[in-house]
Input
Amino acid sequence: MSNTDSNRRRTLVLTGASRGIGHATVKRFSSAGWRVITCSRMAFPEDCPWEAGPEDHVQIDLADVADTERGIAEIRSRLDDGMLNALVNNAGISPKGEAGERLSSLTTDVATWQQVFQVNFMAPVMLARGLAAELEAGHGSIVNVTSIVGSRVHPFAGTAYATSKAALASLTREMAADFGPLGIRVNAIAPGEIKTAILSPETEETLAPSLPMRRLGTPEEVAKVIYFLCTEQSSYVTGSELHINGGQHV
Ligand SMILES: NC(=O)c1ccc[n+]([C@@H]2O[C@H](COP(=O)([O-])OP(=O)(O)OC[C@H]3O[C@@H](n4cnc5c(N)ncnc54)[C@H](OP(=O)(O)O)[C@@H]3O)[C@@H](O)[C@H]2O)c1
Output
């Protein structure tokens, strides 16, 4: 890293920043002095809880290919020096049936499959490719947010969601090989049961008592592992998927 690099404020592009894990991630990076460019469908919140202006928020619908392409061009135009230090692909959706039931391979309609794969899998590919030059210039790091359900059947999370996360884990391996020669590290984090809006309401009562750590995780506990993977502490880590689940995978 040159002197010019180390004097510069580091920049993160983060999808799904408006709540949950993404929100905690904004706070973790902002408090360490990073500029955070956030992306989500909602407009810039007036009561924004972190120090940023609307110029650091890109309104983007990752379910829409054309809007994602437009959003990537907008992000690039906001990177004045053409450098990006981290991309965190955190936005994700996990649709349920009309009565809140789990959607299986027998009950998921094609439109839902396509929407889930577009947001959870294709958007990360598009963002990583679209921002590769800036990540290379910034010796950047990519973190893909997968899930424990990518490797096992889950009582509440649906089939399209689970398979999209399995695909994202495989993509992380492929991208580590493709982006490594550019000096860009690519890793994944696989959360278990983290207290956010995406969780089914019954998780706390039914699942948490069976976990080795006997509790749900917090968004802050996930954010600090994302931070680790985007900083010097993990400088030789690439192609890994870290479990953040209180031992749920054992
Ligand atoms: N919570 C858990 O226990 C858990 C476990 C394993 C994995 N994960 C993964 O962790 C990530 C974050 O989860 P979370 O629990 O924090 O979820 P969340 O609270 O439901 O937040 C999801 C975020 O994604 C954004 N988003 C959804 N659809 C979008 C779209 N079409 N375009 C742009 N942004 C979109 C949302 O913003 P807008 O609504 O404003 O667009 C929101 O900021 C997800 O990838 C999830 O699969 C979570």
User: Anything to note?
Assistant: Helices lie at 3-7, 20-31, 65-78, 110-130, 132-137, 159-179, 203-206, 219-229. The domain at 3-242 is CATH 3.40.50.720 (Rossmann fold). The longest helix spans residues 110-130.
